[in-house]
Amino acid sequence: MAAELVAEVEKAYLNGPLIRAKFSMPVDHGHVAVLFGLSGSGKTTVLRCLAGLEHLTRGRIVFHGDVWADVERGIMVPPQQRAVGFVFQDYALFPHLTVEENIAYGMSSRSRAERRQRVASLLEQMQLTGLEHRKPQALSGGQQQRVALARALARNPRLLLLDEPLSALDLPTRLRLRGELRALLHDIGIPAILITHDWSEALSLGDSVVVMAQGGVLQTGSPQEVFTRPTHPDVASLVGVDNLVPGEIVRREAGLVYVQVGTQTIVAVDSPDNEFTACYISIRGENVALDREPIAAGSARNHLAGRVVEIQPSGQLDRVVVDVGFRLVALVTPLAIKELELVEGSAITATIKAAAIHVIPR
Predict the structure, then answer these.
(1) Which of 42, 119, 124, 201 could form an SS bridge with 19, CB 3.0 to 4.6 Å?
(2) Beta strands 159-163 and 84-87: pairing type?
(3) Which of 205, 159, 157 minimizes the C-alpha distance to 179?
(4) Do 342 and 197 lie in a common domain?
């Protein structure tokens, strides 16, 4: 039997939403999968169904050949028999218990010596040694997160579930702990599924991603694949694609596809899946190069003359909106804007490589 988790989740709420999510993931090499989407997309419901905290309306959940749930066959394995560790969004630490008592909670079936040994091991692994007698309110947000993770690991789970593990932290701490959490998850070696609505977290933490919206799965794949080649316009919006413009495919030739967008014909790399005509072109702003002079023929297929209509300061990369027959957003450094002497009304040429343009069915 394949070492994978197969989830075919359907959960209906009376007078509420219907959640349908179907995906699989490997579970033999500490794989980290991310459930990604906006609030209300159904991510937490899926996680709770995997943990056994919610009953499926239809479907099945199979972990490494073990059937955890199968509505048709009347199987519903209770949470305590699934050997799942769950880290809640607010960590749910017991405020009246110390760090070591929080970690030991749930290990009552073990002897006192076994509990003491396991807690000591986890304190060292989670870099919490010296904090064992503190209460949660005396810990930083990052330390509370590690205590919650240690408690989830205390019973040697087969699967780790994390509900937005960084959302309770302030932004600087969240940015710092991403790498630490990624390293911890891979060092632990237990397969994990975590929830986030922050795409940069999904890129940093996940080996695979399941994109959800309005109770359903829109796309699965590696974070980089989903980031660069979204297969649905809603996915493009969720992963921050700056340009999503409707067009019509007018011809295919020599591995390229020609798309009529407004007054322009845009050239993109063709795909065997492009068996449609009505489409969107998806272009990330960082893949649009700007120059004040017309560009001679080169490797890029698309040289679009236009005018700057807006410059939006945005930090490290500013948004430059160009009218090229359609609205095109380029992400440019403030230094480049200064060197190009860009102002509203500046004549400009936008250059885009065919490989940087992704075509999505409309």
Answers:
(1) 42
(2) parallel
(3) 205
(4) no
